[in-house]
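Worked example (supplementary).
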Amino acid sequence: MSAMISIQNVNKWYGDFQVLTDCSTQVAKGEVVVVCGPSGSGKSTLIKCVNALEPFQKGEIIVDGISVGAPKTNLPKLRARVGMVFQHFELFPHLTITDNLTIAQTKVLGRSKEEAMEKGLMYLDRVGLKAHAHKHPGQLSGGQQQRVAIARALAMDPVAMLFDEPTSALDPEMINEVLDVMTELAQEGMTMMCVTHEMGFARRVAHRVIFMDKGHIVEDCDKESFFGSPRSERAQQFLSKILQH
Amino acid sequence: MDFSQIVPALPALMEGMVVTLKLLVMAVLGGVVLGTFIALGRLSSNAFLSGLAKAYVNYFRSIPLLLVIIWFYLAVPMLLNWITGDFVPVGAFASCLVAFMMFEAAYYAEIVRAGIQAISRGQVNAAYALGMTYGQAMRLVILPQAFRKMLPLLLQQSIILFQDTSLVYAVGLMDFLNSARSRGDILGQPHEFLIFAGAVYFVISYCASYIVKRLQKRLVV
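After joint prediction of all chains, the assembly is encoded as:
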């Protein structure tokens, strides 16, 4: 299997404070990797490094054969091929759902209005929200907004999807509708890197689990061994806390 | 007091008002566009650009508007002469317009800058994550939201500018106030005409402020 995302010895500092230390891992094509860990462990920072929303000072990240950190890399072009879903949805509030779905397709990929519309509505239908096409994001619930955000990313035909705590800002009853969409996506073979605390999702869907603590990747193994017998004490503690309830 | 002379003078005063409003609208549009670029400069990570924009804002906010008007009246023809090598006659209107645009841009820039900073980092990230360039993210995502938020402030600043346009008196441009003053002088009734002009400025500014306040309330909800 070839690596879609390859992270090699990535180090990042905020001033004197080191947020990422020698992080290395890979996500193969079609693989679903869940990144977990306590807050402040650097997992969100790491995933934002993958599409260069956060710069890093040392190491290398290669996405689909292109080096993210290289000065010559056309970052907008690279990012257009990697979908990202954010904790707070980040739909554009001044645009309708339809325009949210089509704006990057037409302005970034240069697709025609009709083509973008067709594609956008197809994905909107897939996340079950076709009836809301004409609305503004503010008129939808959090769960619905997040599903639109996933559709918006998918409409760009990404080679991989990054999820940065996609359910953390949601009310409990809305979490599942988002996880269901993600599960379906994983089953279709999308390459996914998900920062999440949803261990049930990790258990069901993930191929591998990465556990981070204080900027280090502490565990990086298939999910059976992670949930069965995590090697590090820190991961054991984390799991016992998070699985208790 | 005899206000009867004002009615026959209205067409002439109206001409002055047209000059005032033309100057106002063009200065606001030009000032907002220039101000937006200066705001983007101030927010730039490029130290030279942001320093230059900051110097511009600080400079124009530290000198009187009247000085800028007189200065541009003298400087614009000189500059054009220097650039084109020809003597280009520039009217008071054009030089005043440039003066207002550049002066107001400093004030608009601060409003626009605050408006851009009020948009969350997450929106910028979302725009970038979809592959947008800096220019696209600004034009399609950030500025449309920012302008909505700052519209009341921009309009408020424009009402102040409406009153300040009367300073063109200094270079002899026949705006509303100047035409009222000269009419009054000719007819020997300077007081009546100035009182009338004052009333007109008051009514327009007050009504505009009232509308802006209502707009502000609607945008907040």
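Two points are worth noting when inspecting this output. The two ends of chain A are 37 Å apart (CA to CA). Chain A has two domains: 1-81+160-245, 87-158.
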